[in-house]
Amino acid sequence: MTSAPTAPLTDELRARAEQLLRELGAELPAPGSLPARTPITGGELATLRPSSTEEVDAAIGKAANAFRTWRTVPAPQRAAVVRRLGQLLTEHLDRLGELVTLEAGKIGPEARGEVQEMIDICEFAVGMSRQLYGYTMPSERPGHRLMETWHPLGVVAVLSAFNFPVAVWSWNTALALVCGDTVVWKPSETTPLTALACHTLLRRAAVDVGADPEISQLVQGAADVGAQLVDDERVALVSATGSVRMGQTVAPRVAARFGRCLLELGGNNAAIITPSADLELATRGVVFAAAGTAGQRCTTLRRVIAHTDVADALVDRIEKAYRQLAVGNPLDDGVLVGPLINERAYNAMQNAIARAIAEGGELVCGGERVEAGGPDAFYVRPAIVRMPAQTEVVREETFAPILYILTYSDLDTAIELHNGVPQGLSSAIFTTDQREAERFLAADGSDCGIANVNIGTSGAEIGGAFGGEKQTGGGRESGSDSWKAYMRRATNTVNYSSELPLAQGIQFG
């Protein structure tokens, strides 16, 4: 397909996207001013009409009205919607995965893996519906019982990014629905079709089990649509995934109205490679984490901090692997690296490489544009840049496949380099020395929300809470006890005696 002229290929992809939407049960969007482009060619798959201010207001109102009843439904019954959604996702895994490829540019295995992640979180949330536990504590007062209970929070706004156009929505939505909340979803304006498909499947799931489909709302558009959700007092929680700059805008506005935020922002993830590391294992972990999704993951590996004894050998291995990576149309067999999302991402990558060289870096390989998909598509070879120090450009997150190589001579220095960036999402160490591994996981080791040993920085499982510290925002989604973000806690004291003793032994009257 990559050799076909751009216009015929875009026409073919457009027809396929329309067919997939029909098979997924979604109505074809009415034409409008919001383009759905494919990064495979840069051409339009469709245009949609963005939600108006009135439509966004109405969507919030419908979600708020549905919440009044939904919060009273027992959690295991609420889980029926999520269970049915998981079944529909399983039935349509390949179709939805292909639509993700068309709209986000992911290669097939990664796109299908993202849909599988949605299925996994549905299974997790269904089981969790019977485990929304609160504590019972001993009271200091005779004849009293002290306990905590958890209750639904309200309307949850989900603002998702293009790089995981469906999985992040499902992380939030599956948990929020089981917790008794209703959801208004504002997807990235670059991936509106996958959002339309998922929203259709969820509302169908609700209808299939006899639940109110209004528990799920979808609004489409640019930043102004998201801003309306951020500022509306009926929205109890804003879960936002995106850049640090976006989070710096969202958080103060939500805080100003005393709402809640769950932020998943930038990552500048690093892996420390120690002298004892299995270099074959480390190379495989580094290449997948750094080059997968064309470097467009929040968990992408952006820095390697290698011991001076192994740095040269490691770089040789990574360079050899990089030169073997097939870059091209993600629908083609054997392709491992698809396109960047758009020209802006390509320009950001070129600017970062130029800055790195100006700051003393040496370009080992990559960075050049690959001719595929036509003049409006932006394919690049993943780049490796050796840096003399952790300069300003290294401390920034460039959402593209640039891997910076730094060196160290002792573990304290490596950890200092590792933690010496504003972001704190994911991290890794490759070592066969247990002491080094434990030090990396200790309180004075990695300062990230995710810290791995002998595995890369990407590929998190839904069983563990996902999120990071510092400028990553501090939010946690998906597994563990992240459900608590979607609920409010009440402390209850029950007096089953005929006396009224006061706490702390206070005597009054």
From TrEMBL:
Domain of life according to the entry:
Bacteria
Q: Where does the record place a coiled coil?
A: none
EC number(s) of the enzyme? 1.2.1.3
Q: What UniProt keywords apply to this chain's record, in alphabetical order?
A: NAD, Oxidoreductase
Tell me which residues make up the Aldehyde dehydrogenase domain: 34-489
According to the UniProt record, what class of enzyme is this? oxidoreductase
Q: Which Pfam families match?
A: Aldedh (PF00171)
Q: Where is the active site?
A: E264
Q: Which GO terms describe its molecular function?
A: aldehyde dehydrogenase (NAD+) activity
Tell me the PROSITE patterns matching this sequence.
ALDEHYDE_DEHYDR_GLU
Q: What assembly does the database describe for this protein?
A: Homotetramer.
Q: Which family does it belong to?
A: Belongs to the aldehyde dehydrogenase family.
Designated name of the protein: aldehyde dehydrogenase (NAD(+))
Question: Which species expresses this protein natively?
Answer: Nocardia pseudobrasiliensis
Q: Taxonomically, what lineage is the organism?
A: Bacteria, Bacillati, Actinomycetota, Actinomycetes, Mycobacteriales
